[in-house]
C-alpha cells in the first residue's frame, strides 16, 4: 500500500497484480513475499523491471523500503477490486475487515530479545518509527498496529496516550510482551477502546514464574479478554529427540494450566519441525483443542478426543484424532492422568467427574 501510495503521488497508474502474466507490459513490478516457502517462478525474478523484497526472500536481512516510500501515506484503495471479487464469491464482509475497516501501520520497530525462532533480528532495541498521522485514515473506524514490541520502547506510555486521544478502537496485531507490562499498563488497557482480544505470548516454560506473576498482576487491574500464543515444537538446543518431544508436550499442558487460572484462551503456534515428531498427530489434536473457539474452555483434552471419536462417520475404524490419542496414551499412560483428563479454564484444574 505504501508503494502504491508513493507511485500514485508521482502520477503513476498502479494496479494490484494477482498473477504473473504479462509482467513485461509494466514499467515497474514489485513482488513481496512474507514466507520462505511461498513459490515464485525463478524466471520472474530475473525480469529487468521486477523488484522484490520481504522476509520470504531475504529472511532477517530483507532490505528496507526507501525512506520516502516507507513514510508515504498508504493507498488503502489498492485492495478494493480484490475485496469486491471476494464479496461476489460469497465471502463474508467480516472476513475482509482487515482490508476495509483498519488504518494499518507501525508506531515503533524492533525488539531487543532476538529470539532464535523469530525473523525479526534486524534491530536490537525498539525505536520510534512513525507518527500515526502517516497512516491514519479518518474514514476507517479502527487502527491496527504491527509493532514488534512496543512495550520495549522507553516512551510506550506516550504512544498509548496518543491512541486513546484518537478515540478509535485499536489493536496490536503482533501482540504485547507480557514480561514487560506494568500495573499502569493493565489499568490503561482495561479502560481503552481495545479491539478484540489482547494478545500475549508464553513461548518458554522457563518463563513460567515471571509470566504467572505478570498474569496475576494483570488480572488485579483488568478484566480484558486475552488470548495467549503458546509456541511449541522448537528446541533452543537444536536437538530433536524423543526426550525433547515429550518434554515439549509436557510444557504445553503446564502452560495451559497457568493461563487457564487467569481466564485466558490459548492459541497453539507450532514450529514447522513438529511435522517430524513421532507425535505429530498429538500436536495436530492440540492445535484444534486450543485454537478452535471455546473447546478448551469446556472440555479436557481427553474429552475433546473422545468427542472426535463419537463424531466419526466410520464406526469400524476410529478417526485419526482418536488413534493419535490412543497410541500416545498406550505408550505414555502417565500423561493421561497428569494432564489429559484435566480441565484448565477459569481456574478449574479438576479431573473429569469431580
The tally of helices reads 15
Q: Spatial order of the strands in the main sheet?
A: 3-6-7
- Helix content bin: 25-40%
Biggest sheet, open or closed, and with what strands and sense?
Answer: 3 strands, parallel
Q: What's the count of strands?
A: 12
Mean pLDDT: 93
Low-confidence stretches: 348-354
Sum up the overall morphology in one term: globular
Radius of gyration: 23 Å
User: What's the order of the H and E elements?
Assistant: HEHEHHHHEEEEHEHEHEHEHHHHHEE
| Strand residue content | 5-15%
| Amino-to-carboxy terminus distance | 55 Å
Q: Structural class of the helix and strand makeup?
A: alpha/beta
How does this structure look, described?
Helices cover 37% and strands 12% of the residues. With 354 residues, the protein is an alpha/beta fold. 25% of the residues are buried. It is globular and about 70 Å long. It has a 3-stranded parallel β-sheet. A 3-stranded parallel β-sheet has the order 8-9-10.
Concise account of the structure shown:
With 354 residues, this protein is of the alpha/beta class. Helices cover 37% and strands 12% of the residues.
Topology record:
Elements: H1 2-9, E1 29-32, H2 42-45, E2 50-53, H3 55-58, H4 67-70, H5 80-88, H6 97-100, E3 102-105, E4 108-109, E5 127-128, E6 142-145, H7 156-166, E7 170-172, H8 183-191, E8 198-201, H9 208-221, E9 226-232, H10 242-260, E10 265-270, H11 280-291, H12 295-298, H13 301-310, H14 320-331, H15 334-340, E11 342-343, E12 350-351
Helix pairs in contact: 8-9, 11-14
Amino acid at each position: 500500500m505504501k508503494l502504491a501510495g508513493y507511485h500514485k503521488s508521482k502520477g503513476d497508474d498502479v494496479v494490484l497484480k494477482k498473477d504473473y502474466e504479462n509482467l513485461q507490459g509494466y514499467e515497474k513490478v514489485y513482488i513481496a513475499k512474507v514466507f520462505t516457502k511461498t513459490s515464485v517462478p525463478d524466471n520472474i525474478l530475473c525480469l529487468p523491471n521486477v523488484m522484490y523484497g520481504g522476509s520470504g526472500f531475504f529472511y532477517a536481512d530483507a532490505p528496507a523500503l526507501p525512506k520516502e516510500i516507507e513514510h508515504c501515506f498508504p493507498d488503502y484503495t489498492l485492495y478494493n477490486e480484490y475485496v469486491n471479487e471476494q464479496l461476489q464469491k460469497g465471502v463474508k464482509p467480516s472476513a475482509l475487515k482487515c482490508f476495509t475497516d483498519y488504518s494499518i501501520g507501525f508506531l515503533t520497530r524492533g525488539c531487543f530479545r532476538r529470539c532464535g525462532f523469530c525473523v525479526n533480528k534486524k534491530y536490537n532495541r525498539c525505536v520510534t518509527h512513525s507518527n500515526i498521522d502517516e497512516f491514519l485514515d479518518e474514514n476507517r473506524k479502527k487502527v491496527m498496529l504491527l509493532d514488534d514490541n512496543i512495550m520495549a520502547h522507553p516512551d510506550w506510555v506516550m504512544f498509548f496516550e496518543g491512541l486513546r486521544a484518537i478515540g478509535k478502537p485499536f489493536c496490536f496485531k503482533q501482540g504485547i510482551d507480557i514480561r514487560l507490562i506494568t500495573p499502569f499498563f493493565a489499568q490503561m488497557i482495561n479502560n481503552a477502546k481495545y479491539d478484540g482480544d489482547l494478545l500475549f505470548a508464553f513461548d518458554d516454560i522457563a518463563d513460567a514464574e515471571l509470566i504467572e506473576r505478570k498474569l496475576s498482576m494483570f488480572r488485579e487491574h483488568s478484566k480484558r479478554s486475552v488470548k495467549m500464543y503458546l509456541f511449541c515444537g522448537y528446541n533452543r538446543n537444536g536437538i530433536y529427540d524423543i526426550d525433547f518431544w515429550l518434554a515439549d508436550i509436557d510444557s504445553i499442558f503446564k502452560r495451559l494450566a497457568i493461563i487457564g487460572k487467569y481466564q485466558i484462551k490459548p492459541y497453539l503456534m507450532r514450529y514447522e519441525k513438529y511435522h517430524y515428531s513421532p507425535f505429530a498427530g498429538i500436536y495436530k489434536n492440540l492445535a484444534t483443542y486450543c485454537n478452535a473457539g471455546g473447546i478448551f474452555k469446556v472440555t479436557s483434552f481427553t474429552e475433546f478426543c473422545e468427542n472426535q471419536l463419537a463424531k466419526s462417520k466410520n464406526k469400524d475404524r476410529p478417526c485419526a484424532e482418536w488413534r493419535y490419542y490412543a497410541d500416545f496414551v498406550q505408550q505414555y499412560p502417565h500423561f493421561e492422568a497428569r494432564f489429559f483428563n484435566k480441565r484448565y479454564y477459569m481456574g478449574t484444574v479438576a479431573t473429569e467427574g469431580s
